[in-house]
From TrEMBL:
<keyword id="KW-0862">Zinc</keyword>
<dbReference type="InterPro" id="IPR024403">
    <property type="entry name" value="DHOase_cat"/>
</dbReference>
<dbReference type="GO" id="GO:0005737">
    <property type="term" value="C:cytoplasm"/>
</dbReference>
<protein>
    <submittedName>
        <fullName>Amidohydrolase family protein</fullName>
    </submittedName>
</protein>
<dbReference type="InterPro" id="IPR011059">
    <property type="entry name" value="Metal-dep_hydrolase_composite"/>
</dbReference>
<dbReference type="Pfam" id="PF07969">
    <property type="entry name" value="Amidohydro_3"/>
</dbReference>
<dbReference type="GO" id="GO:0006145">
    <property type="term" value="P:purine nucleobase catabolic process"/>
</dbReference>
<dbReference type="GO" id="GO:0004151">
    <property type="term" value="F:dihydroorotase activity"/>
</dbReference>
<keyword id="KW-0665">Pyrimidine biosynthesis</keyword>
<dbReference type="InterPro" id="IPR004722">
    <property type="entry name" value="DHOase"/>
</dbReference>
<dbReference type="GO" id="GO:0004038">
    <property type="term" value="F:allantoinase activity"/>
</dbReference>
<feature type="domain" description="Amidohydrolase 3">
    <location>
        <begin position="338"/>
        <end position="414"/>
    </location>
</feature>
<dbReference type="GO" id="GO:0006221">
    <property type="term" value="P:pyrimidine nucleotide biosynthetic process"/>
</dbReference>
<dbReference type="Pfam" id="PF12890">
    <property type="entry name" value="DHOase"/>
</dbReference>
<dbReference type="InterPro" id="IPR013108">
    <property type="entry name" value="Amidohydro_3"/>
</dbReference>
<feature type="domain" description="Dihydroorotase catalytic">
    <location>
        <begin position="47"/>
        <end position="231"/>
    </location>
</feature>
<dbReference type="InterPro" id="IPR050138">
    <property type="entry name" value="DHOase/Allantoinase_Hydrolase"/>
</dbReference>
Amino acid sequence: MKTLANLRLIDPEEGTESIGWIRFSDHVEEIGKGEGPDGAEDCGGLCIAPGIIDIGVKICEPGERHKESYRTAGRAAAAGGVTTMVTRPDTTPVTDTPEMLEFAVRRAREAAPVHVLPMAALTKGREGREMTEIGFLQDAGAVAFTDTDNPIRDAKVLLRAMSYAKGLGALIISHPQEPVLSSGAAMTSGAFATKLGLPAVSPQAERLQLERDLTLVEMTGCRYHADQITTAVALPALARAKEAGLPVTAGTSIHHLTLNAFDVDDYRTFFKLKPPLRSEDDRLATVEALASGLIDIISSMHTPQDEESKRLPFEEAASGAVALETLLPAALRLVHSGHLTLPQLFRALALNPARLLGLPAGRLSPGAPADLIVFDPDAPFVLDRFKLHSKSKNTPFDTARMQGRVRRTFVSGEDVTP
């Protein structure tokens, strides 16, 4: 049993922030306001909040273990305040069978100090042609089904998968980018992309795919989550779907909330992402949608790439960035700029992901799992990518001035801070 006092209690469920104390074992036993009981550990006014639940983490075992392993990703997560990683199936080989899923569950249990929940592919090989055995995969532990950044082109295949998933109560997660228009794109279209001479895609590609997907959701009633909404033109379709009562939620990535297309100015491939970084107007619209609750979830979209994959001309370089350790300090930029309060931020980082996946976590209340983080939201530092715990160091925040340090991470009441 641990008792921590002199804390700023960040409660995303109640939307409050207060001074108080907390007692916990493997779950939260008691929370109080004001001074803590005798013998409590004084935390000097630091913040405590539910641990982050990060949907969309890529771990590269077994086939690309040189990029990231469960051990290194788990340490990076613990250092960044992520107490639950929800992992993607775009592995080598693809996580599309119960055997591959069982391997992931076993390796995570052996090597990662945080909770790991696997997602499975929606179609075999993520090829968009034949649906996976959703029922068997669900029984093996899959919490959601997605072809990640390889959207299903054939609407009939997706309709069939959605109908089947509806019968099982399964969650489908989709990447709303029209695949033909997006093919080969390295930037978002506009004058800046033209100036740099890079192949680009219109923001409308996101809207097109989202509207198609939402039409199929309307036909089937399937639970659906859009993993990355990053453009202003996609937001009206999302708003209409929610107003109509469809079982729809949406997320966005931390990079699209805090960076924009101008960051690509010197062709630094650490800024090459999928979808590509957007205009500042799109970024601000996405931040506003998050603040209003139209967008539900912030994720890291942690995508490790080795040096060889990134040390290429911008157009040829691999997409993606690591973000397990930078998720919280980058997200705190939205708090320091006045766009979000701390309870709003942790609603998107912890409470809403927990609700989406039906988890008891994400709350700061008695009975909830003791998956907790203690952090200093104002601690300044300059990020050094070589100090990250991830095997791959491809972060766009290298040498950036940031604020916010995780001091302690608890998983089921155990201190797992690296």
